Amino acid sequence: MLKIDSSRLLGDLRTLRSFGATGPGVVRLSLSPVDMEARRWLVERMTDAGLDASIDGVGTVLGRSRNAGPALLIGSHTDTQPTGGWLDGALGVIYGIEIARAFAECDETKHFALDVASWIDEEGTFAGFLGSRSFVANAGDASVDASIRTARSREGVLLADALKSAGLADVPRVRIDASRHKAYLEPHIEQGGRLEARGKSLGVVTTIVGIRELTLRFTGQRNHAGTTPMSIRRDAGAGLVAFIARMNDAFGQLADADTVWTVGRIELDPGSFSVVPGRAEMSLQFRDASAARLDAMERALAALIDDFNARDGVCVEIASSEPPEQPVVMDAALQAHLANAAEALAPGQWERMPSGASHDAQVIAHRVPASMLFVPSIGGVSHDFIEDTAEAHIVLGCEVAARAAADMLRAMHA
Amino acid sequence: MLKIDSSRLLGDLRTLRSFGATGPGVVRLSLSPVDMEARRWLVERMTDAGLDASIDGVGTVLGRSRNAGPALLIGSHTDTQPTGGWLDGALGVIYGIEIARAFAECDETKHFALDVASWIDEEGTFAGFLGSRSFVANAGDASVDASIRTARSREGVLLADALKSAGLADVPRVRIDASRHKAYLEPHIEQGGRLEARGKSLGVVTTIVGIRELTLRFTGQRNHAGTTPMSIRRDAGAGLVAFIARMNDAFGQLADADTVWTVGRIELDPGSFSVVPGRAEMSLQFRDASAARLDAMERALAALIDDFNARDGVCVEIASSEPPEQPVVMDAALQAHLANAAEALAPGQWERMPSGASHDAQVIAHRVPASMLFVPSIGGVSHDFIEDTAEAHIVLGCEVAARAAADMLRAMHA
Question: Taking CB atoms and an 8 Å cutoff, what residues of chain B touch A249?
Fold first, then answer.
């Protein structure tokens, strides 16, 4: 009988929390001394769980089952944001270790190959998703080597130097074993308030949403705020505000309940009481599970820009944009295993949902069928010291993940 | 025959421009060495014009006619903004000197008492309107003394120390002579684009507008921009944008063609692509010639705030506000003299208009009937190195001011 030991699970989560503990939160930036300490502790816990574990050349901890494949890989990350919570990433890694232990203790599952990973630098202290990118990189792909040579932290530390300081300069990087790794499961906290708002305990992720990110710049005419009548103003800030209203209408027409768009930053120039702004900038990010909808929103934005420039005294242009992140669909069969396990252990308490946040799973999914399971975040809060999840949800999530993992491996052997 | 010497007028303006010249602009901050040099030059030019001139204990230059009163006082300021233009203030002071010379050269006007002033620190390097405030201060009013003791420049220099460095520490302050000073005229550049837009050459100022200035703070809930559905967001930035739209509607209902309102600064917190803003702030300034309309706008704003807080997940409050500046009406009889002179010398090329900017005239008006005459600003630009006015407009403005000044003095003697 496959059984999670909830006190062992919670104990390991609490021990991991102690590395970098800061009040209720955790500061454990990738490759920092305390992060490396935590990684050495993870190697110990994985070894105790019967895995062959080590830290690779970028800092990823991989614990390999001694059983022959096909293998399920369970992973997430244990590095944190500058003001991180205790569960973001950590949850999925400790779930993997606990499930490996539970598998070993159960006759029916003890021959299954379950590998566990803590990918380095999901949070991008140096280069986001470094560990998962390195793991799935094809032979000819030099992008990870380029990151290692050129990426720097916000404080200006070169990734290559950080790896040297961590003692990893000459350590080989682990790569995917395509003949072995047949499925990936990343359990994670939701980091949003949707499950809580809907009174659910579990989320089976359908898609990791795609992201578009750009900066819009508005150009008008800087003027004296007292002597310039409204009728002859070309107020870049007022233009920006009017543009947002039109954009909200246009995006609202295209959106479904999960589509999100965010203006996170606005700046008016020169930014004083008595001057009509001559320039204004805003950041715009929109996310959706559908590539087609993202494209439609992009087209709507382009049409709005054209229309705005044809009509108004203020001009708008896209000042810069990030490369698009496309939506990544989770594997349907793996989703079904998660859904079955959730329904068995928590009937009616789960739902399918997109992931609005980015995860290592979207990188791994390029080479391995991938899946994600969410547990609720209290108050929807994450990337904050007060991030938390109810203990009952932490335990339930691990039980569902373990049951689904066994089903996934059974299906691989079928 | 009263006659302006246009080359003498323009010559003096150009000489004054040379004190602090910076490219096409002027940097002549109150009480700086170059400002004091310019003041000593002004004393010379006033003396040459037959006036008894000196620099007073705050830096104001006053040139007193030797003729008995009643007197007309013509004044403005010769200090500049940190990036000032050559005509802002300087125009009115040199007009005064040229008109004093023209009066002396004309049998009909040579017995009129015309005093000329360059008020210190209109631009507020230390304390805005210091010179005119000091001039009109009542015996019991200690506010100027308080400014001298406590006001500091942006660089932290105490006004008292700057006066000491300028050699003015023990010099008496000139005060209004209520039995002599019966009218005030301040010719000035418009600093806006209204006259130019309407193809006019002169503006007779009806009112110096009142100003309300405040900061609005919006409070919502900071959230992850990917994981927080639109339906449960409390986006402080989106709230701010919605509020501005409602405010534009409400103010638009109350406004006349001269009412202005400006959102010059917007800040979203924390101000990043991926975070739904939890807090947002905006500056708001509105100006109007009617105290009743300013009050109505204030009431409309309060109603909008109440309505917004009753309806939305985001709250708004007035975080801070400046003391209100009330509109100051220009003297009707003096306006009529300016209008008559303008119509005589430039028929159909003038109009009555409010001043959207603040001026020493609004301070002087508390003790002396006051008036202002505007000449157009090219492109409406002021407080900028490229500030300029067509030579023909500079000369016409002085001719109209001289004719009106003579009429004002004639009326005083009638």
Answer: none
DSSP labels, A61-102: EEEEESS-SSEEEEEEE----TTB-SSTTHHHHHHHHHHHHH
CB distance B238–A383 less than 8 Å? no
* CB-based contacts of A272, cutoff 8 Å, min separation 6: B264, B265, B283
User: What are A241-254's pLDDT values in tens digits?
Assistant: 999 999 999 999 99
Tell me the DSSP string of B83-95. TB-SSTTHHHHHH
Distance from CA of B211 to the nearest CA of A (A): 9
- Give the closest of A224, A268, A287 to B266, CB-based: A268
Q: Hey, what amino acid is at A184?
A: Y
Whole-number pLDDT of residue B96: 98
**Mutation for testing the B interface, residue in A262, A359, A374, A378 having most B CBs under 10 Å:** A262
Nearest neighbour of B193 by CB, restricted to A228, A275, A355: A228
pLDDT digits (tens, 9 = 90+) for A266-308: 999 989 898 899 999 999 999 999 999 999 999 999 999 999 9
Q: What is the CATH number of domain B210-321?
A: 3.30.70.360
Min CA distance, B357 vs chain A (Å)? Answer: 5
Domain A6-208+328-413 = CATH 3.40.50.300:
no
Q: Which two tokens stand for residue B156?
A: 């932290």
Q: Tokens 């609004």 correspond to what residue?
A: B362
* B374-408 tens-digit pLDDT: 999 999 888 888 999 999 999 999 999 999 999 99
Which residues contact residue A151 at a Cβ distance below 8 angstroms, ignoring those fewer than 6 apart? A126, A127, A130, A158, A159
Q: Which fold has domain B6-208+327-413?
A: Aminopeptidase (3.40.630)
Pairwise CA distance, residues B28 & A241, whole Å? 37
Testing the interface with A: which of B212, B221, B251, B273 to mutate, by most A Cβ within 10 A?
A: B273
Q: Region A38-43: what's the mean pLDDT?
A: 98
Q: Which of B262, B276, B353 to mutate to test the interface with A (most CBs of A within 10 A)?
A: B262
* SS3 at position B220: coil
- Nearest neighbour of B227 by CB, restricted to A190, A227, A242: A190
Q: B295: how many CB neighbours lie within 10 A of its CB?
A: 14
Bridge partners, B74 (sequence order): B116, B185
Q: What is the ipTM of this complex?
A: 0.89
Q: Which fold is adopted by the domain A215-321?
A: Alpha-Beta Plaits (3.30.70)
Is residue A312's pLDDT more than 80? no
* Domain chopping of chain B, boundaries: 6-208+327-413, 210-321
CB contact under 8 A, B197 and A355: no
Distance of CA B61 to the CA centre of its chain: 18
For the CA atoms of A134, A139, A144, A150, the dihedral, rounded to the nearest 10 degrees, stands at 160
CA dihedral over B173, B176, B177, B180, signed as positive or negative: positive
Helical pair B236-254 and B291-311, crossing angle rounded to 10 deg: 140
For A374, the closest chain B residue by CA position comes to: B227
Note whether A226 contacts B356, CB cutoff 8 Å: yes
> In the prediction, which pLDDT does B350 show?
98
**B258 to chain A: which residues are within 8 Å by CB?**
229
Q: What share of chain B is helix, strand, coil (3-state, %, to 5)?
A: 40, 25, 40
What is the number of CB-based contacts under 8 A between chain A and chain B? 191
Query: How many percent of chain A have pLDDT more than 90?
Result: 92
Cβ distance B226 to A358 less than 8 Å, yes or no, reads: yes
Q: What is the largest CA-CA distance in chain B?
A: 84
Lookup: tokens for A65: 């089952």
Nearest-neighbour CA in chain B from A258: distance (Å): 6
Determine phi and psi for A245, rounding to 5 degrees.
-60, -45
How far apart CA B310 and CA B318 sit, in angstroms, is 16
